[in-house]
Design goal:
This protein is α/β, with parallel strands linked by helices. It folds into two domains: about 5-245, Type I PLP-dependent aspartate aminotransferase-like (Major domain) (Aspartate Aminotransferase, domain 2); about 250-370, Aspartate Aminotransferase, domain 1, CATH 3.90.1150. Helices cover about 35% and strands about 15% of the residues. It has twelve helices and twelve strands. The chain has a seven-stranded mixed sheet with strand order 1-7-6-5-4-2-3, sandwiched between helices. The protein has a five-stranded mixed sheet with strand order 8-9-12-11-10, covered by helices on one side. Strand 5, helix 6 and strand 6 (about 190-195) form a beta-alpha-beta unit. Helix 2 (about 50-65) packs parallel to helix 8, helix 3 packs parallel to helix 4 (about 105-115) and helix 11 (about 305-315) packs across helix 12 (about 360-370). The longest helix has 20 residues, at about 250-265. The mean pLDDT is about 95. The structure holds pyridoxal-5'-phosphate. Pyridoxal-5'-phosphate binds near residues 105, 148, 175 and 195. Its cofactor is pyridoxal 5'-phosphate. One of its GO terms (cellular component) is cytoplasm.
């Protein structure tokens, strides 16, 4: 069965006559648990919930590949998922190798908290597999490709091989690609981590994340971390996520196609200084991206002359909603430097291609660019 078919059918209930095709959210704190608690599949909702279980099965199917089955655990956010890996794996004296261009909150978390608990942080850019130089004696290699927001690409399979030779575990933040677009576990990673608030669920209305792994012992540690820290997902969000994931193949195909067309259009405009999208053959990571990704993703970045040009573009584009985050069905964009934190030019815009008709988006962008001549 093809992945798109598997994903679309992954939330179906067994064909019991009269039963609904999909189950609803299960709301519970404690569950009926008479006598020996081991006899009940569910006892208390901080540990487990049947709606999570359904969602975790759907995500695990997506993360599984030829010759192996993955398991997945869902969290209240992408950051809760990322924290579980750092927390379950790192101990005082350990070193973690992160991309210097990694997602801002992940960098700050390690810098502000984990380094103060005796963890050594080593950083190098994603581009050019520069992190490979820092692996000696490291406990964990954290990758992000394509990275947010600078769209840097690294070779997951090559870095996993180098890391495993050095006795280092590998986690990949796979948020921008989703497990349908890129499968880190099949490329050798020990953990695939993502914010599923982005392309995975795609409607800009829920926050959640997950960790997937093929290793039972690592899974048990992540599960224990979640139960002890309590950073859990509500059943309503889990149910909405299940509904949303059924359309992932459709949304991803359309939004990635739109992102490619937008990136190509932007390269033809003289107001645009540079365009970063791994689907462009001119992108320095294109060959690696083409090897390891099934879709190049919905996110692209481009640079206009300065802050004023970027603000003018965003103010005049009627079909581009100015907002942070990405991966929704509606096209969004923002001037990234307004937040501080990322080392990007003042005129740098991160855009997330939605599922609209591409002709409308390009017409709208053309008139918005005309205003900054
Ligand atoms: C958004 C994002 C996160 C954090 O996810 P939340 O769900 O917002 O906590 C982590 N990594 C990347 C690459 C992201 O884009």
């Amino acid at each position: 069965m093809r992945d798109s078919t598997k994903i679309i059918r992954s939330g179906l209930t067994p064909a019991t006559p009269g039963a609904p095709l999909h189950s609803g959210p299960v709301f519970a704190a404690p569950y009926h648990t008479p006598g020996d608690p081991a006899a009940a599949a569910y006892s208390y909702a901080r540990s487990h919930n049947p709606t999570w279980t359904e969602l975790e099965h759907a995500i695990a199917e997506m993360e599984s590949g030829p010759g192996y089955n993955a398991n997945a655990l869902v969290f209240a956010s992408g950051m809760a998922a990322a924290t579980s890996v750092f927390g379950a794996v790192l101990r005082p004296g350990d070193a973690v190798v992160m991309p210097s261009n990694a997602y801002f909150a992940a960098r700050v978390l390690v810098q502000e908290y984990f380094t103060k608990m005796g963890i050594e942080l080593r950083s190098a850019p994603s581009a050019g597999n520069a992190q490979a130089e820092l692996l000696q004696g490291a406990r964990l290699l954290w990758l992000e490709t394509p990275s947010n927001p600078t769209m840097e690409v690294c070779d997951i399979a090559a870095l996993c091989e180098a890391a495993h030779r050095a006795g280092t575990l590998v986690a990949v933040d796979n948020t921008t690609a989703t497990a349908l677009g890129q499968r880190p576990l099949a490329l050798g990673a020990d953990f695939s981590v993502a914010s599923d608030a982005k392309s995975m669920t795609g409607h800009s209305d829920i926050l959640l994340g997950h960790v997937a792994t093929r290793d039972r012992e690592l899974l048990a540690k992540i599960d224990q971390w979640r139960t002890l820290t309590g950073g859990i997902l509500g059943p309503m969000e889990a149910w909405l996520a299940l509904r949303s994931i059924a359309t992932l193949p459709l949304r991803l195909e359309r939004s990635c196609e739109n992102a490619q067309r937008i990136a190509e259009f932007l390269t033809t405009r003289k107001e645009v200084e540079s365009v970063l999208y791994p689907g462009l053959t001119t992108h320095p990571g294109h060959a690696i991206a083409a090897k390891q990704m099934r879709y190049f993703g919905a996110v692209l970045s481009f640079t206009l002359h300065d802050r004023a040009a970027a603000e003018r573009f965003l103010a005049h584009a009627k079909l581009i909603t100015e907002a942070t985050s990405f991966g929704g069905v509606v096209t969004t964009a923002e001037r990234r430097a307004r937040w501080g934190g990322d080392t990007v030019p003042e005129g740098f815009i991160r855009m997330s291609a939605g599922c609209e008709a591409i002709e409308d988006l390009i017409e709208d962008m053309a008139q918005a660019l005309d205003t900054i001549r």
